[in-house]
Each structure stands twice: as structure tokens, then as C-alpha cells.
Amino acid sequence: MTTNYDGLTKNSWPGTWSPSSNAPIALDTELRGTLQSISGAAGDRLTDIFGQRLTEGMMVYLKTGYSADGKTRLSDSYYKYKLLNGESRNSSTGSMPNSESNWSEVSFGSSSNQVSSGSLDLSKDFIITSTTESTTLDVGSLQTKGGASVSGNLFVGGNVFTNGNVKLTQQKITLAEAPPNNPKLGDIWYDILEGGSYQYISDDTSSFWIQFGSSF
How far apart are CA 52 and CA 94, in angstroms? Predict the structure, then answer.
């Protein structure tokens, strides 16, 4: 945050301030490697921290998120500083390199972050940085033990796997070795044994499955 000296008087000790001569205070913006707090406003972001005050492993609290240099920083989050390969502190100036790539978000808690009950109310974008692929019901970056509802569009960049039927509002798609019981007009059945695709239709006298493709 912007340095606030309200109620403080500069002491004779360099870099310290206090509300009285008996209680010296050192501000985070005047120390090296401490936990610091920034607002996220222009001029008060991760890369605005002076290189002389950086040290590996130091953490910074970010009040308001921002985007810069291809990185999206989240509000009310903590970030940790780390040198990149080949980087080091300048022995003459004491400064360390400071780019957005030097900072990574810090997560607190167990390796598997869980919300076991209640609601997770998010007013901003929720970004999961884990890249764990989903291979079973219990493996993946995002897992839910119950159902999931999506009010808007849903984009899937990879394959979609299911242990059951895929049901649409107006029609049902079934992946099985045999046609489903009690089908409705428009339903689609994909024969996983033979590889054919069928749709349930009706003429003037009866309803039946008709093949419309060799693959789904």
C-alpha cells in the first residue's frame, strides 16, 4: 500500500518510525525481504517494489487484482518472489531483477483445497492454475462430489468422458451396447459395440431407430 506515516515521528535510528520515542516501527516498504502489502493500483504493483528490497521467498499481499505482461493477478491474494534461472542479486547495487515472471501465487492449506459445505460466493473470475488432467472421478484440477449447474456457455478444450448418459433438454444421447428403454422422439443412441449412430424417429404408423452415420 502507499506508505502511511500518520501518527509517526521519525526516529534517530535510520529507517524506523514510531508513535513515541519508546516504540520504534519499521515500515514494510523500507525493509528487505519482509511481508509487504500493495494496493494493485498503477505504481503500486509487484514489479514496482524496489529490487534492493527483494529477497527470494518474500511474500506480498495484493489488495486489488490487475493484469500485466500476460499475467493475471487476483485480488486479496498472496504472491511469492523467486529468481529465475540465471538471475542473481547485483553485487554492486544490491538490486534483484523484478518482473511479473518472478512472482507466483501462494496457496495456503492442504495440497488438496476443499470446500466441504456451504457456498463459495465469487464476485470475480475464479481461475484454477493447476493443470492436473481429469482421468477418473477423483482426479483433476476441479472435482465435485455432487452435481454441477452452468447457466451460461460451457467451453471444453479437451475430451468429454462420461460413465452415464448425456441428456439434453429436448433429446437424450445414449452411449451403450444396446438401445435405451423408453426412448423419446429425437433421442440419439451411439452403439459403442458396432460404432453406429441412430436417432429415434416416427412415421405415420410407428416409431423406430434409424441409422444416420457410421460413427458418432
Answer: 5
